[in-house]
Amino acid sequence: MKFYWIIFSLSFLVLSACDSGKKTEKNTTANSGNTVELTQADIESSMDLALKNPEKVEFLRLSKRNLKEWKIKDISQFKNLKGAYLGENPDLKIDEIVEQLAQAPNLTELELSGNQLTHLPKALAKCKNLKTIWLVNNPKMNFTEAIAELASLPNLMEVWLSDNGLVQLPENLDKLQNLEILYLNANNFAKLPNNLGKLPKLHTLSLVAMQNMDLPMILKQLKELKNLEVLILSANRLTEIPENIGDLASLKILWLDSNEIKALPTSLTRLNNLDEIYLQNNPLLPETEAGLPQLLPRTRKIVTRPEHLNPNQ
Predict the structure, then answer these.
(1) For residue range 139-155, what is the model confidence (pLDDT) as tens digits?
(2) Which of 35, 54, 111, 177 could form a disulfide with 134 if both were Cys (CB 3.0 to 4.6 A apart)?
(3) pLDDT score, position 246
(4) Do 289 and 263 meet the contact criterion of CB atoms below 8 Å apart?
(5) How do the domains of the chain map onto residue ranges?
(6) pLDDT greater than 60 at residue 105
(7) What DSSP designation does 60 have?
(8) CB of 61 within 8 A of CB of 37?
(9) What confidence score (pLDDT) does residue 33 get?
(10) pLDDT at 277 exceeding the cut of 70
């Protein structure tokens, strides 16, 4: 399984749970007359059922369906459509589909991961209300051009560029002036663009499974992000954390889980705003674990053991 699908699937499950709730609909099968209960997820995960119940559809959840054709001819019947998840359907004509989706006035989420894209659909520029886009696992895409096009979307807040084999990030990332959340997991670059600090609204950055990154250099660059509150450094085979992590004064949540960390730097005590830290699945020394309350006296949640994380907490 591709690494990015682990990350994306977790987000997708949380989103599905929040959106679908306990909504059900009674539907009678044509051949037996039996009544079956269709959940919101059932309807939104099948193009055929979505076409029969367009008024009920808020999200088209069609990723990994191996779809060969797009049966929706009139997107206007989906009056409540907020998002379309179309990842890993490389046979679909994404350009034509996005041209349709651009007519949905409430579209805020679009997932195009794993579709072997080399460019962004031109019609994407019409999706002025788009807030989140997934471009995971499209390694042939020209991301400098893609970022330039995404910069025309005034409401874009969250971008996923994970698992694209990027050895260097586009230097024009700073054009995404409204960007708040950026996922760069499972790429191959060592450092970030020097102008990343010019993203004034960026508060969440994910750098999971980044085996080649120069963490001291990256932390030095992140110091320029005055509003960075969430930093995710999971599964990086880290054996130690650089002292300059203490320079990230605005940090509230820090994920260091699933690494090879035995001890922690004393500079963590300078993170006065740190509310949560996740250290599970690390070989922490007993004295390191015992000293965490003293090292982080203002941190409300310190996790050192695997736990069932409730996304609604």
Answers:
(1) 999 999 999 999 999 99
(2) 111
(3) 98
(4) no
(5) 185-313
(6) yes
(7) E
(8) no
(9) 52
(10) yes
Predicted local confidence at residue 31, as pLDDT = 44
Q: What is the DSSP letter of 105?
A: T
Under 8 Å between Cβ of 185 and 210: yes
Alpha-carbon distance of 10 to 309, in angstroms, equals 11
What is the third-level CATH fold of 185-313?
Answer: 3.80.10
CA 4 to each of CA 1, 169, 209: distance values in angstroms, whole numbers, following the listed order: 8, 18, 10
The structure's pTM equals 0.88
CA-wise closest residue to 95 among 72, 112, 75: 112
**Partners of 255 in the β-ladder:** 232, 278
Overall average pLDDT of the 101-116 stretch = 97
Sign of CA dihedral 40, 44, 49, 52: positive
Tokens of 139: 């390694």
Q: Are 279 and 302 in contact (CB under 8 A)?
A: yes
Burial of 306 (0-12, 13-18, 19+ CB in 10 A): exposed
Cα–Cα distance measured from residue 82 to residue 104, given in angstroms and rounded to the nearest whole number: 8
Beta-ladder partners of 133: 110, 159
Using DSSP bridges, classify how beta strands 83-85 and 109-111 pair: parallel, antiparallel or unpaired.
parallel
d(CA 259, CA 91): 38
Give yes or no for residue 258 having a pLDDT over 80. yes
Any bridge partners for residue 112, and if so which? none
pLDDT at 37: 82
Residue with tokens 């679909």: 92
pLDDT score of 308 = 54
